[in-house]
Design a protein that fits this description.
The complex is a heterotetramer, with two copies of chain A (617 residues) and two copies of chain C (341 residues). Chain A is 36% helix and 21% strand. Chain A is α/β, with parallel strands linked by helices and 617 residues long. Chain A starts with a strand and ends with a helix. A seven-stranded mixed beta sheet of chain A has the order 11-10-12-13-15-14-20, sandwiched between helices. In chain A, strands 3-4-2-5-6-7 form a six-stranded mixed beta sheet, sandwiched between helices. Chain A is globular, with a radius of gyration of 27 Å. Chain C has 341 residues and is of the alpha/beta class. Helix content of chain C is 30%, strand content 19%. Chain C has an eight-stranded mixed beta sheet with strand order 2-1-3-4-6-5-11-7, with helices on both faces. Chain C has a three-stranded antiparallel beta sheet with strand order 8-9-10. In chain C, helix 1 packs across helix 6 and helix 3 packs across helix 4. The relative contact order of chain C is 0.11. The chains are: A alpha/beta (617), C alpha/beta (341). Chains in contact: A-B, A-C, A-D, B-C, B-D, C-D. At the A-D interface, helix 1, strand 9, helix 9, strand 11 and helix 11 of A face strand 1, strand 2, helix 2, helix 4 and helix 10 of D. Strand 17 of chain B pairs parallel with strand 2 of chain C, so a sheet runs across the interface. One magnesium ion binds next to helix 3 of chain D.
Chain lengths: 617, 617, 341, 341
Amino acid sequence: MGIVTEKKEDVIILFAGDSGDGMQLTGSLFSNTSAQFGNDISTFPNFPAEIRAPQGTVAGVSGFKLRFASIDIFTPGDEVEVMVAMNAAALKANIDQLKVGGTIIANSDGFDKKNLRLAKYDDESNPLLDESLDKFHLIEMDVTKMTRQALVDSGLGTKEIDRCKNMYVLGFLYWMYNRKLENTERFIREKFAKKPDIREANLKVLKAGYYFGDTNETFTTRYEVESANLPSGEYRSIMGNQGTALGLIVAAQKAGLGLFYGSYPITPASDILHELARHKEYGVKTFQAEDEIAAICASIGASYGGSLGVTASSGPGIALKGEAIGLAVMLELPLLVINVQRGGPSTGLPTKTEQSDLLQAMHGRNGEAPLVVIAPSSPSDCFETAIEAARISLEHMVPVMYLSDGFIANGSEPWKYPSAANIPAIHPRFADAKKELDGGVYYPYRRDENLVRSWATPGMKDLQHRVGGLEKDFETGNVSYDPENHARMVNARKQKVEKIADHIPLQGFEQGEESGELLILGWGSTSGAIRTAVRELIAEGHKVSHAQIRYLSPFPKNLDQVVKRFKHVLIPEINDGQLIQLINAKFDKRATPLNKVKGMPFTAREIKEKANELLSK
Amino acid sequence: MGIVTEKKEDVIILFAGDSGDGMQLTGSLFSNTSAQFGNDISTFPNFPAEIRAPQGTVAGVSGFKLRFASIDIFTPGDEVEVMVAMNAAALKANIDQLKVGGTIIANSDGFDKKNLRLAKYDDESNPLLDESLDKFHLIEMDVTKMTRQALVDSGLGTKEIDRCKNMYVLGFLYWMYNRKLENTERFIREKFAKKPDIREANLKVLKAGYYFGDTNETFTTRYEVESANLPSGEYRSIMGNQGTALGLIVAAQKAGLGLFYGSYPITPASDILHELARHKEYGVKTFQAEDEIAAICASIGASYGGSLGVTASSGPGIALKGEAIGLAVMLELPLLVINVQRGGPSTGLPTKTEQSDLLQAMHGRNGEAPLVVIAPSSPSDCFETAIEAARISLEHMVPVMYLSDGFIANGSEPWKYPSAANIPAIHPRFADAKKELDGGVYYPYRRDENLVRSWATPGMKDLQHRVGGLEKDFETGNVSYDPENHARMVNARKQKVEKIADHIPLQGFEQGEESGELLILGWGSTSGAIRTAVRELIAEGHKVSHAQIRYLSPFPKNLDQVVKRFKHVLIPEINDGQLIQLINAKFDKRATPLNKVKGMPFTAREIKEKANELLSK
Amino acid sequence: MSATDIQPLTAKDLATDQDVRWCPGCGDYSILKQMQSTLAEAGIKKEDTVFVSGIGCSSRFPYYMDTYGIHSIHGRATAIASGLKATRPELSVWVITGDGDALSIGGNHLIHALRRNFDVNILLFNNEIYGLTKGQYSPTSPRGQVTKSTPMGSLDHPFNPLALALGADATFVARSMDRDPKHMRAILQAADAHKGTSLIEVYQNCNVFNDGAFAAFTDKGTKASNTLFLEEGAPLIFGHEEELGIRLSGMKPEVVALSDVSKDDLWIHDSRDMGKAMLLTRMFDDPRKESALPRPFGVFYREDRYLYEEVMQEQIDKAKAVKGEGDLDQLIRGGHTWKVV
Amino acid sequence: MSATDIQPLTAKDLATDQDVRWCPGCGDYSILKQMQSTLAEAGIKKEDTVFVSGIGCSSRFPYYMDTYGIHSIHGRATAIASGLKATRPELSVWVITGDGDALSIGGNHLIHALRRNFDVNILLFNNEIYGLTKGQYSPTSPRGQVTKSTPMGSLDHPFNPLALALGADATFVARSMDRDPKHMRAILQAADAHKGTSLIEVYQNCNVFNDGAFAAFTDKGTKASNTLFLEEGAPLIFGHEEELGIRLSGMKPEVVALSDVSKDDLWIHDSRDMGKAMLLTRMFDDPRKESALPRPFGVFYREDRYLYEEVMQEQIDKAKAVKGEGDLDQLIRGGHTWKVV
Ligand SMILES: Cc1ncc(C[n+]2csc(CCOP(=O)(O)OP(=O)(O)O)c2C)c(N)n1
Ligand SMILES: Cc1ncc(C[n+]2csc(CCOP(=O)(O)OP(=O)(O)O)c2C)c(N)n1
Ligand code: SF4
Ligand code: SF4
Ligand SMILES: [Mg+2]
Ligand SMILES: [Mg+2]
């Protein structure tokens, strides 16, 4: 009996199981193999908020969503096509993401009485047995049993044996999607180089899963997802926090400066600290401070000393930095403040994503304290945007707030990475006694044509000076209570930020014409969902365009013109409407909000629906 | 030779001298006498930022501006008519406030070589001798010498004798303005009851100054400022911080609660702490915490315990409270956060006034964290507004941000104080086991028609429950990571604040019609200056109205209608344009900003000029 | 069966309907259990008891106690408890915190709470790691600890939490461990009995991110020789056969064998002697070190000092006695008024 | 005249063009003077010296030193100095702070700075009051102090700053006073010489809001009998005629007359003995008290410990040694790449 191979353009698999089942690893291995093969991919992990919520419970389910395609894609997608459910809780937690007719690969062993009870299935009815899954294609396999069989004479204990379960599922999926095992085999060999028995066990189970597909009569179709025609070049897969970390290291080196990263752990920002701490050979100094205030203050100290000072946090941790950010605004020193946004307010939803700190970034400190706000729009864009943030901060002597979020921070995508040589140098505005001294006196607050003051760091002879948080004289920087001087300084700090608009690109379009029926205007992590929606809308013949704002303060000079040229402007945000307040306050054009505050990213469908509603007006 | 008495409507005197010269006391004594006499008064002290800047220097000058009139007035006024200059620095620091033809009463002894040098008069030219003061009316008197003469045989040392100097000046001014001495004499007797020699000395010098006017031939005119026709009733003079403190005590008692005030000292908020600490007989508990974060957290603890929890700060101290304010938003507990705004950003201008924390109040924390924002508009209005803030917070279980500023906090005015009996009771939303329990279970986050939850405090039997900063279930208040629940709670917290608009007065007008050419829309301490300007504009026949917003979040329901009905809307703010951002973001009407960021309040003239500019359009 | 018809409180009565969400095997479970049984035994009133915590695994504690509770923000529990106790002196207030929550971000509030001496009990779950954020080193992690944020080992010289507490003039300082339920309960009772702020450091195993951090003190094999259990008025004795003791030579503690030294020459524990307490906190050797001194457990120090909430109330009573119950009209009127007719 | 043509640095050279804005008679003037002459003597390089302060009267200090300086925000100077020193180990970094700045809002940063041990010198101007904000009590104000915020007297049990510092594992702890210039300079030199974080508490008179707070220790008449000046290796002797000494009986210091007791039996000062240092910090009696112990001045404790900035750099050097100078392309490429053709 023959096996049909069916072509597919775009597949979404969800690996779901107990935190202990290794679904994150399984998912990333399949991602790498697919990426390597040439598919475009997009992934989105979804951890439980607790470290280890009770085994077998819904709260304990860990999921990894993988989308791979022969077309290019921008998000992990909406409806899942194939779902791996290692136990009952995993099924329960995710079943409503599965599309009708989708496939469930269920580990029957994970549906025993105990698991059903833990998953709180009422009167322990077993979904694998009743009709509740009829509208799906159910594949049951006793992964545990088959894994154990495969390893009977491996000499390993059951605990170790059971840890190989995920490889069985992975192997089977490789068969199902016509994938080669090499990649994963290489990984296993490297990872367990020092543990030959474990290594062999994993390899054996991986193959066992693959052959199970081959040998088992019941599977009559395999699928093939051809390679996408991505632009040719060298690729790697990158997560947002990783991209941010790498960008910071590159920026510091391109500026010829040391990198100092002062931070206090918090989800989801911590991984940037973890990543940077692994790269000390680049001269990176990471400092885990006693709290967020100490973290930013230490970074300010490092900046005063002539390093690229960076601090990062999330949620409540950013709120704590407000006072010190104000100091940095006053000192007019370079400083990067990274906010990996999460669900708020207060402690809120630490592991969920949100874009609700934009207005805090603009106004979250006392007094008139303008700064630069910039936001990356995808995992790989984090790299570029981090460098851009550092460039602005160092060349304009101004603190920059960088707004990432949990979605892109933990998401990953293939990245056609650049060569270091092609990344332009950054030119810090260092003081030079020869130029700066005027009659033997240094004027630390004299400004150049961009209203930027010079950066005199300790050790520079004859440039000794004192800075501080009290209002300062326009030239000498000495404390000044003079009313006119205050007005002048408030204005200078504002103008300095606004002048940066002369040094950033004009607002462009991701897709669509420069004018039309509808502009979908996004910022940050909504880019992928908007892009998918707009692509379809254009395909359907609508005059729709997509612009994604990276520079939120100052806005690109032409933004006013950009919004003017459309009948409707739709602003989707993962918050209750923040960018739209800035747009409505600044421009005469009235925009329409699309808000989602569920700790989850937009689906393309949600955006499309709202767009169609406006288009039909 | 006869002495003419000239009537005046409105006089502005500036008492200026060294921090040590007792000008603040002199000024307030004259104020009390005038108030007592029946004038309308308005005062504005202006201290140096340093505790005691070097004697004799401009930085060390302390000034007290007093305006008293037979018409009703709303500000300390613009140009000074009579200036007392106890030394050269005092003259130098304030001369440009004096109107042409104004009078200078100079203590010649304060213009010796030393004082001239300290005041940095170039090549020590003496302004009393050269022509620089020709356009003013200069009265020189050697106050020191005359004071010493008056006290030759008082048996006091020179140091003590010289401390009486200010009484001499005061006495002379009382003569000049036909004032009785009783009041001040009573004060002196009480103050120095235990120091008979000091008491007698002061009384003697006061009279000496008075008689000096009588006997000295050179003074041919005296002035008379008749009593204003203020509404009849009992009056006292009140400063803004004092009004706030009294309002808090009254509010707590009207709610039948204890008052807990957690605070960390900072200028200009500290005086509220000092005032409250003096009233322990009202059961007030003041707690000087280790920092602003501890202060607000202690107040949150007190609120959870069933007290009216209040915290206050200024400038950078408020920025530090952002995270904890977010917690209060999440806990939905009553809490008052008082911000006596000062010049920013960062440490800024601690002793100067500014309105630049409005947008911080709205957005200065992570996530979607709406709260109530309310602002008093004058020293006496602080009392009422503080009670109103407490009422909203206690009846709607929501944190309220109260935005005062340095100008009204330290300014004073006559206050026709109410009788306690006429202040309505406040009804906290306490839980009641009988009502609340549902099948024996308490649902701490169930809401009433105003979306207000009930307040169950420790000690209430069967209502034990846990609250926290993580997102909570809509009813049980247990931790919930459910996406729909999060959206629901974010919305509920917003709607709860918006519904408060049903429980506050509609926006009214201070002056003018409900529609016309120009609406001048203010908030907080700009009220007096706007009122003066508008009164004159109306008198000049313009269709101008004045509305002062007390409720900044939520806005009064009719605000949209109010702004719509005018051709122009002018928004004067002591900041770089903050209320106007809220108005422009929310309403289609485009308003015109008038901003001043000099650490100084508006003068009526500044507002009038801008208004005329718009009216001539 | 008690004679009265009120059922005596049991540990179960203090549990809530929430599933406990700590990792299987976490030391927190045992601490929760001891707390529930201790309070049940003490026959507390649920409604008069409040648990206040910050953020961290340990700080989830209040959700599992059927009393009033606040799971607040990171590091601020002590500050919140201060305001609560200042206004509600009659309540029994417990603060639950971790080594990061109390000693990193919350360090300042902790030391100020200790000096002020509200009658509050502070339980510091020390697992020498940031658990909730998945394993970064903490202010109590030994130098060189390899964690997510310190792949080459931590650089920080760690705090000695009890030495810090004494330096901050704490009035009750004790140490216990998750693995010794009986001792835990005894210490909880002692802390509860103390009038003033009690600080209890509990060695707690984080079996996911820092497993075995305290094995030397908790494991059967090594416990006896590495730990020293303090008993009031008793000599400092330890060891598998209680064969060893601590003697003070001048100001240096030294280990002696009871075979050569009589018990009367040993250091006698006196928890009211600040000098000795300071030395006890400094018995902080790494147990793996040669000739390491054993680690003390029990009540290191106790002192009677006025309660902040009491003197606060006294001033109010005094003000009322002197000026009389505050009258609002008098307040509003103030000192100086005048009539306009 | 020095042989070289470089003029030796004088105290004047370290002054700035800013008028000093402290109240006439403020103790801060003397401290500024001693600092300027000490640094001039040491022949520092102005451009390699940084003064970092928080907010307070004392924190105005940097404006008056012609070096680099940051007058930062309240309580955070130690944190800022940490970042500066971590990245610029070769600089000489001084922190200027007050009892409110360092011990109230800045308490946490202070204790963490002390345990981490950057090579930074911290000068704590203790005037037992908040000067700049016009006179509220501070964490060092004695209980009962009547101030603007405590008209009926303060309730707080004050910190013992040096005991707190030792509790935080500080490596250098000393005390001096504004009124003893010679001693001040000696202590400044010692702190500067110490490799690690030095904490110097300076008793400073705020003659406007807390005049005479330390009169008992600084006034001619009472100084000798109320103060004890510590000298390394020397017996603890004090009194107008140096007629009194301190002896340790067990762990209790007691005052003895040298007429009855020989110097050899006195407590000999050893600044490396933590136990003794702890007892010294506890010699903290109110001098007005009967039989009060004298208040010690000088270096209480010193310890040699690795510098944070050094081990931080070592890890970087080690990483470079093992992995080689970081190559950006390698960093960007990461572990796993593939080609798309
Ligand atoms: C303001 C703020 N900063 C940081 C965090 C992230 N965070 C939560 S718990 C924690 C530390 C947890 O360690 P510990 O206090 O020892 O508790 P444990 O989890 O080990 O019991 C951190 C850094 C936060 N929630 N809020
Ligand atoms: C965040 C913040 N909180 C409060 C203040 C107000 N403030 C300035 S200095 C100070 C305390 C000053 O006392 P201390 O540190 O002892 O210095 P001193 O003036 O006595 O030298 C306070 C509370 C501030 N500037 N910033
Ligand atoms: S992470 Fe550690 S401390 Fe947290 S629950 Fe798990 S085992 Fe316990
Ligand atoms: S207030 Fe006190 S500390 Fe401040 S400058 Fe004046 S005397 Fe010195
Ligand atoms: Mg911990
Ligand atoms: Mg002080």
